[in-house]
Amino acid sequence: MGENETREEGTKRNIRVAIVEDKDEIRFGLSRLIGGSEGFECIGEFGNMEDALEELPTDLPDVLLNDLGLPGMSGSEGISILRSTYPDLKVLILTVFDDDDRIIDGICAGASGYLLKSTPMAEILESIREIDRGGAPMSPQIAKRVMELFRTSPPPKKVDYDLTPHETRILKMLVDGHNYKTAAEELRVSVNTVSFHVKKIYEKLHVHSKSEAVAKALKGNIVS
């Protein structure tokens, strides 16, 4: 078989993985695990999102293994920027955070999977395989929290929060994983303008954060 044959035709290929993790010992351990495992290749290691955003575009991985609690730009913000530019990039979060806000922020930013750092190494590798095949692996604790977050009674048929069409559009963009910067670029307005409208949205929805606004939009079927 030729080297260019697809996986469906039986050709095996390495899954190319890049890592964004600020703890040196964890990053090096993951790099050794991935680089030393058959069927995997580690093509990049970054200690922060800023370096990843600068260098990843020259050699996109099949899967990005991404922490959330990073110095400087947060993992969720970086994921949102990468996914808005490279929609096919598959991101697997690996973090210690299991709180509702971080889970919602990470998933809404565009991550396809969410693992806790307590996950055994063999399961991390299997999750990378799963996400490469188009799956959405989650640690059991995270899957349970997601189910609890969205296990609600059917919302009222009509909930009027008095959002303007423009505010509804911006809320939809937040649900889709946009941040202020990418929303401003798509709308061709300033970041300050987006920030102004988001504050109005928060007031009308009676929320105090992006994750709360996104959760309310999803639970209340406010945007389609």
For the record, the count of structural domains works out to 2
The largest sheet has its strands arranged as 2-1-3-4-5
Assigned CATH superfamily of the largest domain: Response regulator
| Most strands sheet | 5 strands, parallel
Based on helices, strands and strand pairing, what is the structural class? alpha/beta
Rounded to the nearest angstrom, the distance between the terminal CA atoms is: 46 Å
CATH topology label of the largest domain = Rossmann fold
Number of helices: 10
Rg measurement, Å: 19 Å
Count of β-strands: 5
Question: What is the CATH architecture assignment of the largest domain?
Answer: 3-Layer(aba) Sandwich
Order of helices and strands: EHEHEHEHEHHHHHH
3D shape: globular
What is the CATH C level class of the largest domain, in words?
Alpha Beta
How would you summarize what this structure contains?
This protein has about 220 residues and is of the alpha/beta class. The chain has 10 helices and 5 strands, in the order βαβαβαβαβαααααα.
How would you characterize this protein structure?
- This protein has ten helices and five strands; from the N terminus they run βαβαβαβαβαααααα.
- Helices cover 48% and strands 12% of the residues.
- With 224 residues, the chain is α/β, with parallel strands linked by helices.
- Strand 3, helix 3 and strand 4 form a beta-alpha-beta unit.
- The N and C termini lie far apart (46 Å).
- A five-stranded parallel beta sheet has the order 2-1-3-4-5, sandwiched between helices.
